[in-house]
Design goal:
about 240 residues, alpha/beta, 11 helices, about 40% helix, about 15% strand, binds phosphoenolpyruvate
Length: about 240
């Protein structure tokens, strides 16, 4: 079945590297899956040439106004972006984004017909205290507060345990499967919608096939392993 592969380049690549990246990946898009690439804002226009679906790594929640340094959902939409990553743990951790802010961002994005990739996941302390389920439920319920069933069709959940991001460690495939099931249950119960759920956190060439094969997974969100275009393409070939 067609799956989503979202690539989060994070704050990487200088201008020349970004140009080389685009040149390298052009015409090398997976036919089998929907591949979304999220470079830094300043390279979004450049990445249009890649032919990949465009994602943004962040978004503000209002369309315009005196918010120096912010990028609006309207601006992203008119640039050709179709997905936005919201609630990433980098933003929660370094920029103090809480569930209320994330909820506003999701509403702003959905109002502009952008698809949302909402990241949720527990920290290592929460995992050790066996609080994963409580954390996931709270994040999902608060981030999706006030969003109606129809709009929810455009929201994809990315289960990203904070301790797995960039660490080289991952939960077992059985644990990922359980979390996906649990997330689907929360959303199904609250909204009567079958959500698409991705996994993110240290996906790489060695584990991508196994992870993409997990029951009910809708795809993956990949950070570090997408930064080098050559290894990113060879990794995607493993699941094409
Ligand atoms: C991410 O930043 O969303 C991510 C999944 O990163 P990594 O693949 O490096 O763990």
């Amino acid at each position: 079945m067609r799956k989503i592969i979202a690539l989060n380049l994070k704050m990487n690549l200088d201008y020349e590297e970004a140009q080389q990246y685009v040149d390298f990946i052009k015409n090398k898009i997976s036919d089998k899956h929907d591949v979304i690439i999220a470079p830094s804002f300043i390279y979004l226009d450049l990445f249009k040439k890649s032919g990949y679906k465009l994602g943004a790594q962040n978004v503000y929640y209002l369309d315009k106004g005196p918010f120096t340094g912010e990028i609006s959902p309207l601006q992203l939409k008119t640039l050709g972006v179709s997905y936005v990553i919201v609630g990433h743990s980098d933003r929660r951790l370094h920029f103090n984004e809480d569930n209320k802010i994330i909820n506003n961002k999701i509403k702003g994005a959905l109002k502009n017909n952008l698809n949302v990739i909402l990241c949720v996941g527990e920290t290592i302390e929460e995992r050790k205290l066996k609080k994963t389920a409580i954390v996931l439920k709270k994040q999902i319920t608060n981030c999706l507060n006030g969003i109606d069933k129809d709009a929810l069709e455009d929201v994809i959940i990315a289960y990203e345990p904070v301790w797995a991001i960039g660490s080289g460690e991952t939960p077992t495939n059985a644990e990922i499967e359980d979390s996906i099931k649990y997330i689907a249950k929360i959303i199904n119960k609250g909204y009567d919608v079958e959500p698409r759920v991705l996994y993110g956190g240290s996906v790489n060439k060695d584990n991508i096939r196994g992870i993409m094969g997990i029951n009910n997974i809708s795809g993956v969100l990949i950070g570090t392993a997408s930064i080098n275009p050559k290894s990113m393409i060879s990794m995607l070939e493993l699941v094409d």
